[in-house]
Amino acid sequence: MKVSDNMKYSEERSFWINALFFILSIAGLFVGPLIFALMLRNFIKNLDILELVCNILFILVLYLMYFKDLNREAKTYSKNFKDSFFKGLKYYFLGLMAMIFFNLILSFVMKGVSANEDTVRNMLFSNPIYTMLSIVIIAPLSEELIFRKSLAPIIKNKWIYATICGLLFGGAHLLAGEFNWLNLLYIFPYGSLGFAFAIMDYETKSTFTSIVMHAIHNGITGIMLLIVYYMGAL
Questions:
Q1: Ranges of each domain in the chain
Q2: How far apart, in whole angstroms, are the C-alpha atoms of residue 192 and residue 6?
Q3: Distance (Å, rounded) from C-alpha 13 to C-alpha 24?
Q4: 41, 47, 115, 151: which is deepest, by most CB within 10 A?
Q5: In this structure, is the dihedral angle defined by the CA atoms of residues 28, 30, 33 and 36, taken in order, positive or negative?
Q6: What is the rounded average pLDDT of the residues 35-64?
Q7: Prediction pTM value
């Protein structure tokens, strides 16, 4: 299938509108769920449910921003499911290998895991059901719409697009915990996976490719961590 026959990203919007959508998406990552929490905290007392609802509402806002694009991309992904899935799997495997390589190197330098990984593990072990819902559904949807979908209409060059996606994705995962200059090195493993997600979306012309691969990655990782934890190895 030729690229001209595929869905083209947001051609009906100007560059500046797409840039504004990108800025709103990034800003929404930090303040969107918080705004919804302030609105709903008197109605939903359970903090886990409140956070889950707020994140879902934020994803809905992102969907409404890109609903025409996403509807087309859903049809593209469905129509070319087999090709898109296995192409996504190929790039995911390459990204995962790079992530493992960098993590092995950093394990000798840092003598531990990143602050983000430590935070997720603590949440997973203390509240597995909520955390699995969060990392398998909320994170793939919100992060792929923010770090991939919002950039796709702005940057047309495949490699520049993938590089910036990787840097933003990696950088966002370094925000947890106390700042440490050495922690910046973790941008390489996280960025490798973000780079791979961007490439698979560009190749398949659908953000749903990386959403599915992201969900699979988080799901398998979460289940493996829980198994190891309940076996007493962590």
A1: 13-230
A2: 26
A3: 15
A4: 151
A5: negative
A6: 95
A7: 0.91
Per-residue tokens: 130: 């909520």
Local structure of 14: helix, strand or coil = coil
- Residue labelled with tokens 């500046």: 16
And the tokens for 182?
């050495």
Residue with tokens 């990392």: 135
Split at pLDDT 50, 70, 90, the class of 178 is low
pLDDT (tens digit, 9 = 90+) per residue, 89-99? 999 999 999 99
Residue 107 · residue 37 · CB < 8 Å: no
Q: How far is the C-alpha of 52 from the C-alpha of 48, rounded, in Å?
A: 6
CA 156 to chain centre: 20
CB 222 within 8 A of CB 122: no
- The total of other beta-carbon atoms located within 10 Å of residue 219's CB is 15
- Per the CB < 8 A criterion, the answer to whether 65 and 13 are in contact is no
CA angle 197–202–207, rounded 5-degree value: 60
Torsion of CA 120, 207, 74, 221, to 10 degrees: -30
Q: How far apart are CA 33 and CA 153, in angstroms?
A: 24
Q: How far apart are CA 176 and CA 90, in angstroms?
A: 30
User: Distance (Å, rounded) from C-alpha 126 to C-alpha 172?
Assistant: 23
* Both structure tokens of 120: 């997720």
